[in-house]
Amino acid sequence: MIKVAPSILSADFANLQRDVQMVEQACADSLHIDVMDGQFVPNLSFGMSTVAALRPLTSLTLDCHLMIVDPERFVEQFAQAGADLIGVHVESTQHIYHALQLIKQAGAKAEVVVNPGTPLNMIEGLLPLVDQVLIMTVNPGFGGQHFLDAMVTKIAALDALKQKNGYDFDIEVDGGVNDVTVKKCYDAGATVAVAGSYIYDSDDPAQRIEDLKVATN
Ligand SMILES: O=C(CO)[C@H](O)[C@H](O)COP(=O)(O)O
Ligand SMILES: [Co+2]
């Protein structure tokens, strides 16, 4: 069964506490927080003050997906704000290894993220270091986009590398996840699914979390 990480990008920002606690009660496995700087992606969203505000409200793992240029500038502040896991895009910095080291030094779990157009060989050397790899299944920047089917072979190729080398990281997918696409990802080796609009744009978010789990059971 896949682990489910609701993305608050699709939550009601005027009722974030309610929307976070609702998914926690519905057995979400972690909470996905999309951080955007208007440069790496053409959108703005949350910052470390949002993470700090949410930290006392939930015991869910806070999974912070940084879509910002040169994320190494800020990873320590995100960890201090309460992030448990911090994801940095391989495309966002000249110093990805250093960024991942800083995350670990700050006491958080380290994740490397790859855009749809980025081949896996860009992150192969990082795989022994990371706790999680995030394969983007849409181009980053916005919720509610269509899942890119071509990413399924990329997930399978990453899982093959993981098995061959005995690596111990989770494989997360993000973008366009629903009860159909989640099964394709799970069958290819994904262990964690982010879902924003599928969960929060529903009248029954708890049922949607259950549906993602049932689809991969
Ligand atoms: O990183 C993201 C966008 O860049 C979001 O996590 C992702 O898009 C979730 O939204 P949805 O499930 O609606 O596609
Ligand atoms: Co995300």
From TrEMBL:
Cofactor field: Fe(2+); Mn(2+); a divalent metal cation; Co(2+)
Active site residues of this protein: D34, D174
Catalytic function, reaction form: D-ribulose 5-phosphate = D-xylulose 5-phosphate
Binding site for a divalent metal cation: H32, D34, H65, D174
CDD domains: RPE (cd00429)
This protein's pathway: Carbohydrate degradation
EC number assigned by the record: 5.1.3.1
EC primary class: isomerase
GO cellular component, one term: cytoplasm
Cofactor: binding details: Binds 1 divalent metal cation per subunit.
Purpose of the protein: Catalyzes the reversible epimerization of D-ribulose 5-phosphate to D-xylulose 5-phosphate.
Entry's family note: Belongs to the ribulose-phosphate 3-epimerase family.
Name assigned to this protein: Ribulose-phosphate 3-epimerase
Source organism per UniProt: Lactiplantibacillus fabifermentans DSM 21115
